[in-house]
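Weekly puzzle thread! Below is a chain. First person to post its structure in token form gets bragging rights.
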Amino acid sequence: MTAVGNHKSVLLVEDNQDLAATVGEYLEAGGYILDYAADGLTAMHLAVTESYDAIVLDLTIPGIDGIEVCRRLREDANLDTPVVMLTARDQLQDKITGFDVGADDYLVKPFDLAELEARIEANIRRAKGHVARLEVADLSLDLQTMEVVRAGQSIHLSKTLFEILKILMRESPKVVSREALERELWGDDFPESDPLRSHLYVLRKLIDKPFDITLLETAAGHGYRIYDPGQ
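Winning reply:
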């Protein structure tokens, strides 16, 4: 399954139908697109034939267990999709084994659904940090060359404008609060004036004004976001 628009796609591998339904309903309510697998073979088939932002993988599944599934995805399929392992095992060696075969995170049952979502989000963000290019609609940002292009037109941005755009595109379509933007841009050393407002004004003129569709939106009282209104 490929993510539709900016909705994140997750492969949930869990043979307990009640737990799978509970987790699935929670994540789908949060805007995720889900595929399900109840055994190792199905999980491997879906993982290598579809594209996911993250895989939530139970260890004790029928057929090929979660450890072997993760190992094969990493070593044989060369798949780098973030994997969050779910298990009732809380022994340190079990966790070490999971990490050794390529798991990115480890959550012991029973777990809080909000924590699972937070871990999925954190691992997706880390994975995106290694992506060379961010894209929203016809706007693209190259993290290596710092080139910004919209509808085939190159856009020249200052370092600060580039950083603002990178943050907003990385989190798209979510709203990023003013406080979060300022913290990531300047840490605890906030400027005395209000440069963010001016930077956003200039950014909007550069990436939106020459084009028919507006991508940079102000969510009054909440923050800012870059999103594709056509999705």
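Puzzle host: Confirmed. Bonus trivia for everyone else. The two ends are 17 Å apart (CA to CA).
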